[in-house]
Design goal:
Length: about 325
């Protein structure tokens, strides 16, 4: 097989993963099975294989898709924190979610930020922040479509916006509701270390020209909690990218979280909280795949040490 080369400024890959192989070496690749949800497959102990993409960054458009195939041992976040910069987030962006929260439809996008330390791997532990009563922090899930900017832009129109989108990922805008409600700004309750799992794959915008077709789902312990479609967005992806770029430079690698559908835990009667031992699948269709992060309320010394190492090495 002849290695695939970049064509017309588009990446050679359709669905990129960053992973560790069986020898612990970090690699980039494209899953051999186009239809396989690699997050679920590895969670269930299945063998997963990928064609090697010769690159050191998901943002490298000169990357070459080789013929070499290797086994995937552990999935890593497709983008490293130093590649992403600050994560820009849109709140209250689904009509049905606004209805469940009994809030009016916003006229302009509501924006908040997440720090790069929130980036987490697709199966990394989500560790609840300290509370006087740990279970009172009300840890919650929010499935979200993540948009990755592939070309630095500023002051772009809605018509131009999609030219700057590299691709899409599944994200979980993890939220500690108690901390969120302590202050007027959302950054605190959503900004703890590891509170933005992303991946398992970065899917190129060239194969998803219209992201409104994507379907989002959260399954908690076998029960569907969120089931939505990107077509329910109040502000579309082109609108969001254009809005965020007005007067602000969106650097290549910027991650944009675009809001969550209805069904979050805090809106349920009675409210639903994430607890240790939960099986949580956060999923988006069309190859974006599933996040399978376990929940930890009391991090072990091993987990604390591991997370400190990740922050120091910037993953």
């Amino acid at each position: 097989m002849t290695p695939a080369l970049v064509d017309d400024g588009q990446p050679a890959w359709n669905r990129l993963i960053r992973f560790e192989d069986v020898n612990g070496k970090e690699r980039y690749g494209e899953p051999v099975d186009d239809d396989l949800d690699v997050g679920i497959a590895l969670h269930r102990g299945q063998d997963v294989y990928a064609r090697i993409v010769r690159t050191e960054s998901a943002l490298d458009l000169s990357a070459v898709l080789s013929a070499d195939i290797i086994q995937v041992k552990k999935l890593l976040a497709p983008l490293k924190p130093q590649e992403a910069g600050t994560i820009r987030c849109i709140g209250l962006n689904y009509r049905e979610h606004a209805a469940e929260m009994k809030l009016s439809i916003p006229e302009t996008p509501t924006m908040f930020l997440k720090a790069t330390e929130t980036i987490n791997h697709p199966s990394g532990h989500i560790i609840a922040p300290h509370c006087a009563d740990l279970h009172d922090c009300h840890l919650d899930y929010e499935v979200e479509l993540a948009v990755v900017i592939g070309k630095t832009c500023k002051d772009v129109s809605e018509h131009q916006a999609m030219e700057h989108v590299l691709g899409y990922m599944t994200a979980n805008d993890v939220t500690a509701r108690t901390h969120q409600n302590e202050v007027s700004q959302w950054d605190r309750g959503k900004g703890f270390d590891g509170f933005a799992p992303i991946g398992p794959a970065l899917v190129s915008s060239k194969i998803i020209p219209d992201p409104s077709v994507l379907k989002l789902q959260t399954i908690l312990n076998g029960q569907v909690m969120q089931q939505g479609e990107a077509s329910d967005m109040i502000f579309t992806v082109p609108k969001i990218v254009s809005f965020l770029s007005q007067g602000c430079t969106l650097q290549k690698g910027t991650i944009i979280l675009t809001g969550t559908p209805c069904g979050i835990g805090v809106s349920r009667n009675p409210p639903v909280r994430l607890v240790e031992g939960d099986e949580l699948f956060v999923t988006i269709s069309h190859g974006l795949g599933s996040l399978t992060n376990p929940i930890a309320f009391k991090p072990s010394a091993h987990l604390e040490s591991k997370h400190a190492q990740l922050i120091e090495a910037k993953m």
